Amino acid sequence: MASLLPFSGLCAFPVTPTDSQGRVNTEILSRLLEALCAAGVDSIGLLGSTGIYAYLSRDERRRAVEAAVDCIGGRMPLMVGIGALRTDQAQDLARDAEGAGADALLMAPVSYTPLTQEEAYEHYRAVVGVAGLPLCIYNNPSTTHFSFSIDLLERLSSVPRIRAVKMPLAAKGDLLSEIAMLRGRTLLAIGYSGDWGMADAFLAGADAFYSVLGGLMPSPVMALARAAQEGDVDRVRAIDAELKPLWETFKSFGSLRVMYVLLDLLGFGKLEPPRPILPLEGHPRDQVLGAAEPLLKSV
User: Fold this and answer.
1) Within a domain: residue 91?
2) Which residue numbers are catalytic?
3) Are 198 and 241 in contact (CB under 8 A)?
4) Taking the CB of residue 102, how many other CB atoms lie within 10 A of it?
5) Among 105, 140, 139, 151, which Cα is nearest to 256's?
6) Less Cβ around it within 10 Å: N or C end of the chain?
7) Burial of 103 by CB count in 10 Å (0-12 exposed, 13-18 middle, 19+ buried)?
8) Is-contact 126 87, C-beta < 8 A?
């Protein structure tokens, strides 16, 4: 098991490549992960939203974790998403990830009937009770339609093995105040997602950033992260400006759809997202290609 935990620095989230029946292509997955190891990202986040965890069966999720552990070989920490509709399903996924050799867990409160704050608390408490791995709370209201109150995060931070939170970008953009509040009320390592806010999150002092683009084009994202860690604000802003056209496609079309265009552009194959999500075609696809092609020199 890796000695470091994936709750600091840049955590890269790759796509989980599958065929039309939802079977994981472990060969392409290994190629993606090998590139991340070679780039020196701080950790890898497998089976996040970009990793289409919600569309995969338990068996395929297990296969993906096993393939990732074999490929990474302890070179860096591996965090695995275990979000599921029912508590017992999430417990099974936690056991599977631990048994396969993952270093940490990431869990979103997946639901159909909207959860109460108390239900979410009991869900997390039950899941961390069955595995010995540290867990990061996945606060992703845009997909789960559930928002963690600061009171709930404070309660959860006292639960053994809950160590971190993956936050959405602050609604009013005041990351400094939000980070200060979270540090004042919780014991959690604080990370963010939403790649267009990466520069601001790192400069505001976030412990980690959980990056979609970093899972496929790690070089420019790593350059931004390292510049921020070194306090080179001018360099951070310059890299962020270069990436802005791509960030705009994330906002317009959804980062998952954009990643499938980039997979093809980078030679991983013309894979398609899981249905009912449709691949980008025509002008939207051209817009992604136009935004990405100037960055290829950094890949």
Assistant:
1) yes
2) 138, 166
3) no
4) 29
5) 140
6) N
7) buried
8) yes
In a domain, 263, yes or no: no
pTM of the model: 0.95
Which distant-in-sequence residues (6+ apart) come within 8 Å of 241 by Cβ? none
Helices (H), the chain: 26-39, 58-72, 87-100, 117-128, 141-144, 150-156, 175-185, 198-203, 218-229, 233-253, 255-265, 282-292
Q: For residue 12, which of 44, 50, 47, 46 has the smallest C-alpha distance? A: 44
Q: Which of 133, 87, 81 has its CA nearest to residue 107?
A: 81
- Torsion, Cα of 126, 127, 133, 134 (10° steps): -80
Tokens of 52: 């289409």
pLDDT at residue 298, as a whole number: 54
Instruction: For residue 49, give the CATH number of its domain.
Output: 3.20.20.70
Q: Is residue 286 part of a domain?
A: no
Which structural domain, as residue segments, surrounds residue 83? 9-231
Please tell me the distance from the alpha carbon of residue 18 to that of residue 145, in angstroms, as a whole number: 26
Contact status, residue 162 vs residue 132, Cβ threshold 8 Å: no
CA–CA dist 209, 167 (Å, integer): 9
At 178-231, the pLDDT tens digits run: 999 999 999 999 999 999 999 999 999 999 999 999 999 999 999 999 999 999
One-letter amino acid of 264:
D
Total count of domains within the chain: 1
